[in-house]
Amino acid sequence: MKSDVYFAKLRTNDPKEKASALARLIDQTGLVPEYKKDEIVPVKITIGDSQCVYNLRPEMVKAIITALKKRKTRPFIFDTNVIYTGERLNAVDHLTLANNKGFAHSRVGAPFIIADGVFGHDGKEHQIESDHIDKVRLPSFVGMMDSLVVLSHITGHILAGYAGAIKNVAMGMSCKASKQVQHSSLKPSVVKDKCTACGCCVDMCPVSAISLKNDKALIDQNRCVGCGECLSACKFDAILVNWGEDILIFYKRMVEVAGLILSKFKNKLFVNFAFDITKECDCISNKNEKIITHDLGILASTDAVSLDKATIDLINKDDDVFLKEQGKSGYRKVLEYASQKGLGSIDYNLKTI
Ligand code: SF4
Ligand code: SF4
User: Which one of 153, 239, 276, 288 has the largest count of C-beta atoms within 10 Å of its C-beta?
Assistant: First the structure.
């Protein structure tokens, strides 16, 4: 069955115009459920790395929070800690960064909560019936609330080709150990003949797993967390991952974790922001990041699979932008598997408002 995806076409940098388009999507489409009075509603966001300037805008978060409050709910915004070094590795630095990037309560109208605690370990274990992953640790509120709102800034992604709603849920709503398990099938290796010992991968690796030995890069596989950042750092194609089986396992684990998380919420609303679409995701990008296509606007749906598929189709209308930029189109396999696993429908009705 096809799901409805609503699209507010927009090419503007004016935050007020964007916020009013978002309000239209919320108020005129019937996407928002009947919330219970005083219901606490979690809103998933990602603030991006400290160097990233293209992440989700606080003004958009504020517009959603205002819409939720109008419906007499008590929303909060949240994210989890990341598995690599930087300012989102623990809740203290993460919250400070959020404040500095404009996500303070006073700016967006709701508190920001780091859902997996100070160091990213606080949560509850859930079993998954799967050949690829057997359990997952999730923030403890998952399973205790009826509703979920997921806001995603659309970008390319070094491993999945595309980062949208499904990835935001699978990685962004898992505790650190479960992020690691999802990535763990990816063990990059160095092709020595191609390595020029430039050291870019050494600087880029967020867990210091790469060193230079005898003028070649060497990856410590025990330390590596499979984030894939060295792949984008190397300009000599000297770092390889197994784009066959290993990456498929990564996609499948990601989809299965997203499926389990989404099954814990009755009411779901997903919003994709297709502005400033960069080659790399907000964990890697900085102010020099390449913008790979023009702005499209805002898309919303209650079905994450339809929403991501519609977003990709609009971006790739004339050309497979992600394939061209990233050299891979993994998102097709992600979406097909997500649809097979019942996360949503790959077919959709696009309704432009
Ligand atoms: S970035 Fe590539 S070429 Fe440079 S040291 Fe690393 S593997 Fe070698
Ligand atoms: S994938 Fe590369 S950058 Fe990421 S942790 Fe492993 S060696 Fe480091």
Answer: 153
Which residue in 295, 225, 254 sits closest to 160, CA to CA?
A: 254
Mean pLDDT of 286-315: 94
Give pLDDT tens digits for 69-106: 999 999 999 999 998 778 999 999 999 999 999 999 99
Q: Which ligand approaches the C-alpha of residue 239 most closely?
A: 1
CATH 3.30.70.20 fits 187-240, yes or no: yes
Two tokens at 309? 């598929």
CA of 247 to the centre of ligand 2 (A): 14
The bound ligand whose nearest atom lies closest to the alpha carbon of 234 is 1
Decide whether any atom of ligand 2 lies within 6 Å of the 188 Cβ. yes
CATH classification for the domain delimited by 3-182+244-352, as one of 3.40.50.11440, 3.40.50.20, 3.40.190.150, 2.130.10.10? 3.40.50.11440
Ligand 1 first shell, C-beta below 6 A: 190, 195-201, 217, 233-234, 236, 238-239
**Residue extents of the structural domains in the chain:** 3-182+244-352, 187-240
Q: What separation in angstroms does the CA of 35 have from each of 31, 65, 71, 146? A: 12, 14, 7, 9
